[in-house]
Amino acid sequence: MVELDPTGRNVHGEVARLRENGPAALVLLPGEVRAWSVTRPELIKRLAGDPRVSRDPRRHWSAMATVPPDWPLNAFVQLKSLITAYGEDHRRLRKPLSGTFGRRRLELLRPRIEEIVDRLIDDMDADAGTPICLRERFAAQVPAEVMWDLFGVPDSLRARFSSGLPRFTNTAATPDEAGAAFNEMVSCATELLAVKRVFPGQDLATDLVEGQASDQSMTDEVLIHTLITMLGAGIDTTSNHIANAARALAVDPVQRRLAVSGEVGWDDVVEESLRRDGPVMHLPLRFAVEDFDLEGVTIKQGDAILLAFGAPGRDPSWHVDAHEFDLTRSEKDHLAFGYGVHYCVGAPLARLEGAIALERLFTCFPDLELAVPPDELIPHTSFIGCGFQSLPVNLRPRVPAER
Ligand code: HEM
């Protein structure tokens, strides 16, 4: 059995080894919890689309009762929201969110995203000449500010959410740290709910509060957990995506020129980055609703299953030279946003944020380069979130905007 490295030092190398171990490989998660790791693209699709596989630990995980309350990954099974719901419960909880990022809504959001990106670029430009951390100053800020706006998060709660949410994916956290992070996020979301009840606004948190009137299953607890799910899923993932794509362009002048010159579109940059550097690798957890066979491996009812959504993009059976970042490749298929009924609600928004942020950043700073050798970048301590803790860059002179 492979013990997944909680420090996430070499997530892609680890997945390459798991891929060799057959259709499903038994892995040990922090806290000695066992799960079947599935890395191959067609099997991930099969399981993510199979009603015999559930995301609800309360109904379908045989070990749920024995997992201690301080299990480091508890946040992923304790949350009661669409992400841990099954069947009809999932359909009901997803319904109020599923239309959230339709084309019309996104076009209304575009100018606001552009404004946020331009302001952050101006702020960074004021410090050009010295290395800056692009993750902290830009990649983490863009999605955070978009989500604060969308959910009407007051200034007083933003710093607390920003420091607590990324801790959910720290797979090397001690049980105390993980428990404290979860409690802090519940406390923040509870405050957000209280604010919206007294001061409703034109935002998604208010929409969810108002939706309670017509849906009795949306208890306060589920609403609070839904807010945490949305903010957690929407910020760190997209930060990793923007930073990973910026890093790929920063270290490769040929690819950078293809993008900056317009020979390939910014949507291609987004897709190639999602393929090669998916922001989410393993996403805990799923559970077998009944016994079934997976290409010769028997998965027993109640077993835990861990799908590696970040693995297929680099699967050599799917892509030639899968480890190469190549904007000109014609097939950029990936499962970075998942598959099936739990497919990412925010995928259109994440793609839009990525395209706007990267285009404006590299149009202003076409010679942007890393300020440290690439192998000195330190990955997140996580086998869930894929990215780097910081991204020091030299912006180089800014290109004046065309008038
Ligand atoms: C590049 C950025 C993003 C990546 C890589 C990503 C990845 C994923 C993945 C892999 C899943 C599937 C979970 C599963 O099947 O188990 C998912 C679900 C989800 N994502 Fe995203 N996500 C991103 C951005 C966002 C954004 C911006 C939002 C919100 C605005 C969001 C909200 C959600 C929600 C609510 C779910 C749960 C859907 C369900 O269970 O039905 N995500 N995401």
UniProtKB/TrEMBL annotation:
It comes from the Bacteria. This is Cytochrome P450. The keyword Cytoplasm applies. Gene3D superfamilies: Cytochrome P450. It is found in: Cytoplasm. InterPro entries: Cyt_P450, Cyt_P450_B, Cyt_P450_CS, Cyt_P450_sf. Belongs to the cytochrome P450 family. Keywords: Cytoplasm, Heme, Iron, Metal-binding, Monooxygenase, Oxidoreductase. GO terms for molecular function: heme binding; iron ion binding; monooxygenase activity; oxidoreductase activity, acting on paired donors, with incorporation or reduction of molecular oxygen. One of its GO terms (cellular component) is cytoplasm.
